[in-house]
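Quick look at the format.
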Amino acid sequence: MMPSRNNVTTGIPSSKVKYSKLSSTDEGYIDLQFKKTPPKIPYKAIALAIVLFMIGTFLIVIGALLLAGYITKGGADRAIPVLIIGILVFLPGFYHLRIAYYASKGYKGYSYDDIPDFDD
């Protein structure tokens, strides 16, 4: 008696595997391979973008008030660095928040995949 053949990779006996003939008109493609999975929303990256946006906005306002003279501590020598740091913190926060907003609204060309995520 001959031993039964098993599928080496899965261990399933070949008598239990069901095969079906492919249609000659589908060219080997199935609809499932073109279906997009729903995007994973990067909550941590969006939270970081919100924090950067808020800190940058705060520093820009403080720098503008220092430059205008409403806050008399320091002057222009302290206002310029505060403005530069505020702009450098504000820009990435605003950019990623904009992408997240447009992706949530479903605008064409915007996706949550464009926001870098923390791979935990």
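Next, a different chain entirely:
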Amino acid sequence: MRTDSSPGTLPAREHLPAGDAGTPVLDVVIPVYNEEKDLQPCVLRLHEHLKRTFPYAFRITIADNASTDTTPQVSQRLEARIPEVRAFRLEQKGRGRALRTVWSASDAPVLAYMDVDLSTDLNALLPLVAPLISGHSDLAIGSRLSRSSRVVRGPKREFISRSYNLILRGSLQARFSDAQCGFKAIRREVAQVLLPLVEDTGWFFDTEMLVLAERAGLRIHEVPVDWVDDPDSTVHIVRTATDDLKGVWRVGKALATGSLPLDRLARPFGDDPRDREIKDVPKGLARQLVGFCVVGGLSTLFYLLLYSGFRQFTGSQVANALALLVSAVANTAANRRLTFGVRGRGGAIRHQAQGLVVFGIGLALTSGSLAALNAATANPARSTELAVLIAANLAATVLRFLLFRVWVFPDRTEEPSTVVAQHIPTYATPQPPLPQRPAPHFRAGDAADHTWRDATMRLQPVRPSDTDLGDSR
């Protein structure tokens, strides 16, 4: 949970207005490569479905990434025939490259894409984009692995898909269920900031985008879909799986080293309901309790191991004091960083000193419990000693949390008046608005007048890596 008062890069999510009839709210991109047979039936079916069911203006963009058959000509005919269809061509392969280029230049507030084979039932399209239109979510994905999804595909693809998502959960701690389903949508303001951080230009593009969005705290909505496998799919499974694993390693390394500027994707303070001040509900209490319990459980195990080791060559009181001292130092350091979110070395010595005072209280409780046990029984069993110490530590733990929260790591959030005063000079000198550039218009032109290449050159690559001709996908 953020506690800063500075606005994030992304604006607060709002419900999108219906707008003018000619302004598309949704831009559905269909990336294609050598799909001369399936392209026209796909576009006609999608257009008919949107005309019949979608309540907003829409656009269908055909993103042809370096097809070598008659796909460009089919795209031109569809663009000339249907007003809502636009054709765009890249001279380089790569599904991720095509999506990033077209999405980055689109003027629609909601951007989506789907595979040309229409394996996903189109009835899921409106539920996919509705949370983005309403302002509820930042991204939306179709999931074939949801319990209510109905999927028809062979055991080989089923095994690969589930194994890949298990790898993502285990290595990148991903919580979304299906990274590879070709049925996704994103709000434009999110895409403008998120896409420059995504490096992959091929099939791993989806996964990288979702992992970064999730790590940045964006909301990802999942829609159960009905999905039928395309037996004529041209995806090279082995090569794609190898490239995906390389991408997992690259993204995992970048996340571990902190080299990704995910703070660019932060929402302004107050957009998250957890930022609100609620009467009689201490701020951050639930999260701190969970973190303190986890640290406390691990500290208790650490303490018991230390006590059992020290008890082999010393008395119970000395073993208890040594074990509690070592575990208390580790407990204070862990709670400082993980539970109360204190960063840096500033105040670390003072915090440890205060933690030792709390340790003294815990020592008094546990030592007093041992003294009472020894007074009641001359030679208590080792298991009885451990049971008494566990009970005493539980009581000391509750007191420790209260002292940590109120005394050692108190919440020193700045008063709102201070924040307002800091922003007064900004409002006193308003800046002139930036000039608005007209939205790009994707027209592929006619092959007969040689405008294909000119139309392609109007859109420049988003990243320097997009000029790499070595991408084989």
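The first strand starts at residue 26 and ends at 32.

See the schema section for token definitions.
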